[in-house]
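Predict the structure of VOC family protein.
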Amino acid sequence: MDVKLKQCFIAVDDHDKAIAFYRDVLGLEVRNDVGFEGMRWVTVGSPLQPDVEIVLEPPGANPDFSPADREAMARLLAKGVLRGVIFTTADCDALFERVEQSGADVLQEPMDQPYGVRDCAFRDPAGNMLRFMERAGD
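Done. Here is the predicted structure for VOC family protein.
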């Protein structure tokens, strides 16, 4: 089978703040930033992974959501309980310093995990948890 990841989605409540964080702090490329059916379609991705994109979308972007569903999703995002993503990095400590200096909310300072990675965690401007891991020996 020829199956590969193409896109994943992260809910954001302010595209401009999200772009500034993902582009300027994390160094991801903005691949698309266009209006689409009354919404804004923004994708970012690592220059090291040209085939994989993260879609930054409003929490209630699903066209099948009712107004109550959209409101519930916005509340969950505000609480910081929606899932984020896990990134890999060659230098967890250097990445931690850069992201911490941006003012991002620190959830976990770099630490060695018993399962063979060194990792840290932050919240993005919308409150999503982002983890960054460095594999032992990388």
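The mean pLDDT is 92.
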